[in-house]
Amino acid sequence: MNSNNLLDFVKLRNSHEPEFIQAVEEVALSVLPALEKHPDLRKLKILERTTEPERLISFRVSWLDDKGEVHINRGYRVQMNSAIGPYKGGLRFHPTVNQSVLKFLAFEQIFKNALTGVPMGGGKGGSDFDPKGKSENEIMKFCQAFMSELSRHIGHRLDVPAGDIGVGGREIGYMFGAYKKIKNEFTGVFTGKGIGWGGSLIRPEATGYGLIYFAENMLQTKGQSMKDKICLVSGSGNVAQYAIEKIIQLGGKAVTASDSNGYVYDEAGFTTEKLAFLMDLKNNRRGRIKEYADAFAGVKYFETKATDHNPLWSIPAHCAFPCATQNELNEKDANNLVKNKVLLVGEGANMPTTPEGINVLIDNGIMYAPGKASNAGGVATSGLEMTQNFMGTNWTREEVDAKLHAIMKNIHETCLAAAKEYGKPGNYMHGANIAGFLKVARAMQAQGVI
Ligand code: NDP
């Protein structure tokens, strides 16, 4: 089977799932040449099998709002691959959630989890529920209704969800509480739990911190560091906030943040105090990013307009970290980054760069880290949370951070080694796809055709 055959196979079976097809195409283009070297894996149709979820659950979530009105949402869990461990991957609550988006995320998750070195399979789930504008009571009601069905399909040795867009500590608390009540047991069925009830220190910070550790490793290959680097960050949620924090700690300067309404450009750069304001705004007051610009002199705010590019990426900088959502950096944006001689793009979000954008970056020699490598620190630390739960212990902040640091360094080296071995030196995308795939493929081969 060549890449055309495989993609025809996937397109035929998933014709209404553009995001999923996009994710498969990226991995297939990297992996098929490597499979030439491994005819045993080709014969077993391992790649084809990874494109079919082991199980896909879709369910109705009915709940009552504060006025007593009935709402109906759709809930999902995609259990994509359990070759190397229990299904693991976040839950997303956002109106754009559908089967295609969750299958793309679950597919990416297989290879990301394999890269971490922690034994975790791939999964993802969520709902088209929009948490924006909902009261605290409505969020809790929805989480409980969602868990009344999802609880049948997950378990601490079976499938362990975590957060993602729209699902943070608050939602995990409500869902964990509902699960505990339904099952009458206290287990590590979620990661991202609160400290004091099974959570791990550094888990909230891990995706953003890990992203910047990975970028630091990339810069070191060019004899450089994050110090004094001007950085563009998109998003203002969990990943963006802690990426900004680590940039500040390493002596860099983060100058942007965004939400779905617009972005702020703070030429003077975020400071610890300004970041504390942003965190309070987004995590407690649940306000809009514009308020950041209103609060600090010299900060410019730009509303999102329907254009063919995202102007945030045309601001001069050394590094770019897309941390909001999929396909937020396209070919035009990539060309703007090239024009401004950006050194690296590190993906905090999942699949934020379009395939055309990736080609522009790589063709122009910009170091490009795909999310499945550079944002793997979150799930890796979730794996550390699971280990602590199994052991019945709590590691210190320093211990978890040191392990996260080591894991990101190891992923970086693994990507570069695989890229070199398979004839694409320096190409993190091919390296990540090939290394992640081969690990899962060998496990699937050993476990027979199931
Ligand atoms: P949050 O919900 O905390 O934040 C998401 C941010 O992105 C918000 O600022 C949100 O703005 C913005 N955003 C979301 N959707 C859109 C959209 N369609 N257009 C413009 N802006 C948008 O999510 P996270 O920070 O957890 O996740 C961000 C990305 O990182 C996602 O791609 C996620 O899959 C990925 N990721 C997250 C991990 C984690 O540990 N949390 C781990 C690995 C990857 P607004 O508030 O206006 O919606």
Describe the overall structure:
The protein is of the alpha/beta class and 450 residues long. It has helices spanning 3-13, 18-36, 39-43, 46-50, 99-116, 136-150, 169-183, 203-220, 238-249, 272-284, 290-295, 331-339, 355-363, 371-374, 377-391, 397-421, 428-446, and strands spanning 55-64, 70-81, 87-93, 122-127, 159-162, 230-233, 253-254, 256-258, 262-266, 299-303, 319-321, 344-346, 367-369. The strands form 3 sheets. A 5-stranded mixed beta sheet has the order 1-2-4-3-5, sandwiched between helices. Helix 12 links the parallel strand 11 and strand 12 (344-346). Helix 1 runs antiparallel to helix 2. The longest helix has 25 residues, at 397-421. The model has no long low-confidence stretch (mean pLDDT 97). Residues 96, 163-166, 168, 207, 235-240, 259-260, 323-325, 348-350, 375, 378 line the site of NADPH dihydro-nicotinamide-adenine-dinucleotide phosphate (NDP).
User: Could you give me the name of the CATH homologous superfamily of the largest domain?
Assistant: Leucine Dehydrogenase, chain A, domain 1
Mean pLDDT: 97
What is the rounded Rg?
Answer: 21 Å
Large-scale geometry: globular
Into which percent range does the helicity of residues fall? 40-55%
CATH top-level class of the largest domain: Alpha Beta
The CA-CA distance between the termini, in Å, is: 20 Å
CATH architecture of the largest domain: 3-Layer(aba) Sandwich
Helical stretch tally: 17
Task: Determine the structural class based on helices, strands and strand pairing.
Answer: alpha/beta
Bound molecules: NADPH dihydro-nicotinamide-adenine-dinucleotide phosphate
Ranges where pLDDT stays below 50 over 5 or more residues in a row are none
